[in-house]
Design brief:
The protein is α+β, with helices and mostly antiparallel strands. It is built from 15 helices and 20 strands. The radius of gyration is 22 Å and the shape is globular. The mean pLDDT is 94. It holds the Pfam family Mqo. Keywords: FAD, Flavoprotein, Oxidoreductase, Tricarboxylic acid cycle. InterPro entries: FAD/NAD-bd_sf (IPR036188), MQO (IPR006231).
């Protein structure tokens, strides 16, 4: 998020000074790191949690369309970056990988068919295929077909237009370009506090972790792109708008396979259905990953729990984030979220063998010795005040900004990095109302569909997809 916002602002106002502060010694080591997330270019092509069932038995696809529109902005920004030298070889951060939705059982097959029927005619989902034939299933997904009961009712929706994204590489490249453009990038610098001066500027208290010195940096605008740690920094800033917000941390694990004899049998990102009571971020999926040119398989996620707000955070993160203004929303969520709590307890109790059994729902002949357990990035779900005493647990992303636009931050987890451009355009509109109209022509050059519905303009979408596919090396033979 920070790398994206910094790159947009540097393109719009190259004369503005910019400082980026990172507590760790390299960029993208938290949630953006390639092994800390599934690397799915979240365009809602395969994620079933974006297309919930409706009370009348139908399927609501509105969120899927919104997320896809947002991801198109990211594709355009990245293509512009490649065309203009901001980004390097696109295969270092994005690669074509089919996106697949997978279900079992007659009821779920019926749901997936309705989802397919609702999306297949939409311009942004052109090319979506329906597969409800065992032989075709086996041809496309041999690892998932081997050892599967031929009487089991399975179906998939399939598209060749999906991607795998290494957000760690993307972040590093964006920040490398920002540094070459004069931005001051400081690693191993931890923000300890924020104070607003009488003239409206911010004084940021920073600790240099190498020599222990404390320094102060003055800024007219501050963006808090600290992942799960953003809520604590916005609390330290003392802005009114953060009151009532809290965070609920959820950790996770994946199991990974690097054995080429196994990875060669599966080339797709296959998303299933979340367990009853499980949060949307827990949707099981078997993913092809391309990291550093090497293909691997990733399965999960397996949910866990820790009070840390960051993978490299502290066990005091959650208790120190409790304030009088967010105590009631947190308590209310605790009372109403027993299903989630039960799910987390059961996940924590899972043995390694039980985790492999979950994998075998997707790949029946998977062998435990071919897979290794890795820890994923930390996610902090948003708890928001609802009414006078209530609270709601949200699984999306939320921009929080001061009313005067001098500070903003991003809370939440999903769809996260995939829609960073849409989120940061939102930040620009909220925090720079005096400049945004003057910036629009240049923003339209960077992201041509800015302010336009591609779903309502299929010809424009087709033209932009042709451009982004070519620039990002995604064009099909």
């Amino acid at each position: 998020m920070s790398a994206t916002l910094g790159s947009l602002l540097k393109s719009l106002q190259p004369d503005w000074s910019m400082t980026l502060l990172e507590r760790l010694d390299q960029p993208g080591l938290e949630s953006s790191g390639p092994w800390n997330n599934a690397g799915t270019g979240h365009s809602a092509l395969c994620e079933l949690n974006y297309t919930p069932k409706t009370a009348d038995g139908g399927v609501d696809v509105s969120k899927a369309i919104t997320v896809n529109e947002q991801f198109q902005l990211s594709r355009q920004f990245w293509a512009h970056g490649v065309d203009n030298g901001l980004l390097k070889d696109p295969s270092s951060f994005i690669n074509p990988v089919p996106h697949v939705s997978f279900v079992r059982g007659t009821e779920n097959v019926d749901y997936l068919r309705k989802r397919y029927d609702a999306l297949a005619g939409h311009p942004l989902f052109a090319g979506l295929e329906w597969v409800h034939d065992h032989d075709e299933f086996a041809r496309r997904l041999p690892l998932m077909a081997e050892g599967r009961d031929p009487s089991e009712d399975v179906a998939v929706s399939w598209t060749d237009h999906g991607t795998d994204v290494d957000f760690g590489s993307l972040t590093a490249q964006l920040l490398g370009n920002l540094s070459s453009q004069g931005a001051d990038i400081r690693y191993r610098h931890q923000v300890k506090g924020l104070k607003r001066d009488t003239d409206g500027t911010w004084r940021v208290k920073v600790k240099d972790l190498d020599d222990g010195r404390t320094i102060w940096i003055s800024a007219k605008f501050v963006f808090v792109g600290a992942g799960g740690g953003a809520i604590q920094l916005l609390q330290k800033a003392g802005i009114e708008e953060i009151k009532g917000f809290a965070g609920f941390p959820v950790s996770g694990e994946f199991i990974r396979c690097l054995d080429e004899t196994v990875t060669a049998k599966h080339e797709a990102k296959v998303y299933g259905m979340a367990a009853v009571g499980a949060p949307p971020m827990s949707v099981p999926h078997l993913d092809t990953r391309v990291i550093g040119g090497q293909r691997s398989l990733l399965f999960g996620p397996y949910a866990g729990w820790t009070p840390k707000f960051l993978k490299e955070g502290s066990f005091t993160d959650l208790p120190l984030s409790v304030r009088p203004h967010n105590l009631m929303p947190m308590a209310a969520v605790g009372v109403t979220s027993w299903g989630l709590i039960k799910y987390l307890v059961l996940e924590l109790a899972k043995s390694r063998g039980r985790k492999v059994q979950d994998l075998q729902v997707f790949a029946p002949l998977a062998e435990e010795g071919d897979w290794e357990l890795i820890t994923a990035g930390q996610r902090v779900q948003v708890v928001r005040k609802k009414g006078r005493f209530g609270g709601s647990l949200e699984f999306g992303t939320t921009v929080v900004n001061a009313s005067d636009g001098t500070i903003a931050g991003l809370l939440g987890a999903s769809p996260g990095a995939s829609t960073a451009v849409a989120a940061m355009l939102d930040v620009l509109e909220r925090c720079f109302p005096g400049q945004i109209d003057g910036w629009r022509p240049q923003l339209k050059e960077i992201v041509p569909s800015y302010g336009v519905s591609l779903g309502d303009n299929p010809t424009l979408y087709s033209d932009l997809k042709t451009w982004t596919d070519r620039s990002l090396g995604l064009a099909q033979a």
